[in-house]
Amino acid sequence: GQCSCFQSIELLKSRPAHLAVFLHHVVSQFDPATLLCYLYSDLYKQTNSKETRRVFLEFHQFFLDRSAHLKVPVPEEISVDLEKRRPELIPEDLHRLYIQTMQERVHPEVQRHLEDFRQKRSMGLTLAESELTKLDAERDKDRGTLEKERACAEQIVTKIEEVLMTAQAVEEERSSTMQYVILMYMKYLGVKVKEPRNLEHK
Question: In this structure, how many other beta carbons lie within 10 angstroms of the beta carbon of residue 195?
Fold first, then answer.
């Protein structure tokens, strides 16, 4: 049967191929900033403590900063604090709080995108339908599905990159930021992707 993982981003985020198909939909149809913000928050939470500071500064650079390429609406209690001090001076205990707050803040929009996706999927307008159906069928029987899921995600990520390349002509930095966030998350899910090019920090 159809995977219920498209009901919620919490279920979806650990299924690389399904997530990649959803990402493709959002990147093609909407501004993906909120979804990417959600996923990067998740990545932060899984990061070992030596790296969290770097990931927070990236998170700030991509999503919160005034000139962020993937700017999302920042609640006032956070934006006031960000005005007051440079991001590298924000204490670590606040990092977690900010990231948690942002993740909760973007969650409703991510769920709206999922709703749209489910509707389009039922009309046969989304990518890789037969691959996903096959993965869902095998998942019940087969432990090796995660590997297959990753391999399938790998194919879909290249399609996402094609969409981004098309957009790149117009908004190069924005596209490469999107690409970086998507590749980092897919890499964390164990998908073989080309090494995310670290973006030049301003």
Answer: 7
DSSP 197: P
pLDDT digits (tens, 9 = 90+) for 77-122: 999 999 999 999 999 999 999 999 999 999 999 999 999 999 999 9
Q: What are phi and psi of 51, to 5 degrees?
A: -100, -10
By three-state DSSP, how is residue 200 classified? coil
Alpha-carbon span 121 to 123, nearest angstrom: 5
Q: Report which secondary-structure segment, H or E, holds 80.
A: helix 76-84
Residue 118, judged by CB atoms within 10 A of its CB (0-12, 13-18, 19+), counts as middle
Structure tokens given for 49: 């403590």
For residue 96, report the phi and psi dihedrals to the nearest 5 degrees.
-60, -45
Specify whether the CB–CB gap between 153 and 145 falls below 8 A: no
